Structure prediction request, 468 residues.
Amino acid sequence: MQLRSPSRNFKEQKVVSVTRKDQVYTILRQAIISSQLSPGETIRKELVAAQLGVSRTPVSDAINRLADEGLVEIYPQTGTFVARLWLDKIETAQFVRVALETAAIRRTVERATPEIITGFRQNLERQRKAAEKQDFEQFYELDEALHDLICDAAGLVGLREIASKERSQIDRVRRLLLHYETRMIETLAEHEAIISAIADGDADKAAKTMEAHIAQMGKMLLHLRNKRPELFGS
Amino acid sequence: MQLRSPSRNFKEQKVVSVTRKDQVYTILRQAIISSQLSPGETIRKELVAAQLGVSRTPVSDAINRLADEGLVEIYPQTGTFVARLWLDKIETAQFVRVALETAAIRRTVERATPEIITGFRQNLERQRKAAEKQDFEQFYELDEALHDLICDAAGLVGLREIASKERSQIDRVRRLLLHYETRMIETLAEHEAIISAIADGDADKAAKTMEAHIAQMGKMLLHLRNKRPELFGS
DNA sequence: AGTTGGTGTGTAACATGTTAGATGTTATTG
DNA sequence: CAATAACATCTAACATGTTACACACCAACT
Prediction:
């Protein structure tokens, strides 16, 4: 018997081992965030397991992780549900998002190389095209990608993952809002202002613009609650 | 058969259902953060299960959660280890901590009532006593509690849990540092400066002071790596 | 001696069986 | 008829059995 300790031989945490629970997690998360599964809807582990052709174990593991993330609510011995929208939790998520992304953008301003700026502008160009085509889904994906790019440009290992996780609540709300109001033109203008500020090296302006950009969602949220109260909790 | 949907009848998420996996999680987390389990050490699920008198399932669940939190490293089909210290991850955790806590303190300044300020000062008083007694552990606990109090005072549901989770890496490092260097006097002074700034309603000063306070840890970290390189990864 | 390939072992991942408890329903009682 | 208690049912939680795979070890070959 040999005690194996972590050593250099390990394929250093890069093999993003795609276990079944990871796959199930990704599928369910996507389904929840995209509102394919509605807030409040029941999730039957056994059914999910059958549909995906796996046993209950990886499904349970995936759901536990989603519960940590606040995307599902588990009531012990009773049932599992897609998390409803809780205004106070969304408020906290917004706060965290603003805090992280404004801080990240300040670092990004310090570190942005011409190549990185070019990457931003390419994304903006594609956003413009998507906006012209009225392709909401595509525009939304590019929006998320841009925020990820800015996070990455801050040059901190794992920051994107953390930010993305904390953003999941908000991403879900935004998807729901997509069907009611789009603001694509305004959003695009805001993105352009942010990138310009970064290109100009103006950290304060970039942060301020980002903050205002993120804050936009608040008003629309109340609008959604009036139209679809069943999606909300408490 | 009746489809149960989440309703008001539920003991609304307050019964912090203490399942076994939660208990195991708490025990292991505490053991890791307190360095009772050293970075790099092997964790044998079966052994842990036997020691705690439970089956492998709740242990696995707890460890999965700890892996999400970055406190353990799971190598599929190979083994599970207490996470080693990775400078780049700690750097990211520091960044996140600064971002969240400076943002939180700005809100706290706006909302701090006399009662809340009194709570802060009571904590400081106990810190002073602990410092006089050279009671490192007690002082450290009060330190964490103060940061939690400030988070709570920001008035955002769940913020403390998020901040606490993102802080776990750093808490672990601080515990290890405790044995080498204490800085209790200086730390106490920094805490007092932060609270004074809050009491004065000076948000900028409070945030600046907090940032400087958190940044202190950086230097000591390199010191630790020289003394205990085996705790570090990469 | 260093490299390569086969083999054994131990572990996480996965599957499935069992238990406990929360809730809805029905029966019972005043 | 309302309140309450017994019951049925469904689900997550927990236990345990099985499989697949990563790594260590060793032998054979260059």
Observations:
- The CA atoms of residues 32 and 228 of chain A lie 16 Å apart.
- Confidence is low (pLDDT under 50) at residues 1-15 of chain A.
